[in-house]
Specification:
By secondary structure, the chain is of the alpha+beta class. Helices cover 29% and strands 23% of the residues. It contains seven helices and nine strands, in the order H-H-H-H-H-H-H-E-E-E-E-E-E-E-E-E. Helix 4 packs across helix 7 and helix 5 packs antiparallel against helix 7.
């Protein structure tokens, strides 16, 4: 009698990371995936790092221009108004002192007296003359005479210092206004990064898109894995940064961002996710920071946009 004989067949599975090999329960508790984790970079791209106990605060004053640019708008505008007001008051006080010392206040109604500044009869008028001099308004009502050498010297000093103040403060405001920070509002990242199979390879994927019609020139993207680690010598390194290859060697990290693109990272033996299993992934305290760099087409200014992604490993089809 003929009998069917089944011969054993050996199937060689491709070598995959632990995320695809482990036989684990299909469903993961939502409470475990929604643990409250303090972020290194917030979702809006701002770094959640606060510098404290800085003893050498004088270093901020050595680069006062950058310090002013980095201040918030309300403080920047306050300093802008205060600098001009203080300089006007300071030179107005000096103009009033010159008139007071020369005796111009005692000969206001004397037509034969030649004052240092005509029609200067008090501190308010001296303050107004200081504003007219520094801002080069020149109404023509209050003018300096040639009989006052100290006034001529003060006029030269105020004109030069006023030009320096204008260059410094207007330059500071221009740099702050032209910063392309708001350009980042129209560059969006996907909320979640997904781990799934693509072309037979296990990949970590996320999307990035530009909402504006003006393009980002020479756009390039890179990603970092933020995770604490302990070395083989026992040293604990908090917030260790590890590169995530998103196409550096193949050129895929240089983007032509005219439509939303899917950025892919292959999880191979060189990947920092290779040793993380699917069961271990929800328990890991890690963070993925994506950085997009480029130049704004309209202004030519450089722009750096960073985003924070939440890692999601989808369930396999049954």
């Amino acid at each position: 009698m003929d009998q069917d004989v089944e011969s054993p067949v050996t199937i060689h599975q491709p070598k995959l990371p632990k995320q695809a090999r482990d036989d684990l329960p299909r469903h993961i508790s939502r409470d475990r995936t929604k643990r409250k984790i303090q972020r290194y970079v917030r979702k809006d791209g701002k770094c959640n790092v606060h510098h404290g106990n800085v003893r050498e605060t004088y270093r901020y004053l050595t680069d006062i221009f950058t310090t002013l640019v980095d201040l918030k708008w309300r403080f920047n505008l306050l300093i802008f108004v205060m600098v001009y007001t203080v300089t006007w008051l300071f030179f107005g006080m000096i103009w009033w002192l010159i008139a007071y010392i020369r005796g111009d206040m005692d000969h206001i109604e004397d037509p034969s007296w030649t004052p240092c500044v005509t029609n200067l009869n008090g501190f308010v008028s001296a303050f107004l003359f200081s504003i007219e001099t520094e801002t080069t308004i020149g109404y023509g009502y209050r003018v300096i005479t040639d009989k006052c050498p100290e006034g001529i010297i003060l006029l030269l000093i105020q004109s030069v210092l006023g030009s320096i103040v204008n260059a410094f403060m207007v330059g500071c405001m221009f740099v702050k206004i032209s910063q392309p920070k708001k350009r980042a509002e129209t560059l969006v990242f996907s909320t979640h990064a997904v781990i799934s199979m693509r072309d037979g390879k296990l990949c970590l994927m996320f999307r990035v898109g530009d909402l504006r019609n003006s393009h980002i020139v020479e756009a390039s993207i890179r990603a970092k894995l933020i995770k604490s680690k302990q070395t083989s010598e026992g040293e604990f390194i908090p917030l260790n940064q590890t590169d995530i290859n998103v196409g550096y060697y193949t050129g895929d990290d240089r983007l032509f961002l005219v439509s939303p693109l899917i950025i892919s990272h292959e999880i191979n033996q060189q990947s920092p996710f290779w040793e993380i299993s699917k069961a271990q992934l929800p328990k890991e305290e890690l963070e993925i920071v994506v950085i997009l760099e480029g130049m704004v087409e309209a202004t030519g200014a450089g722009s750096i946009v960073s985003g924070d992604l939440q890692l999601v490993s989808p369930e396999k089809d049954k």
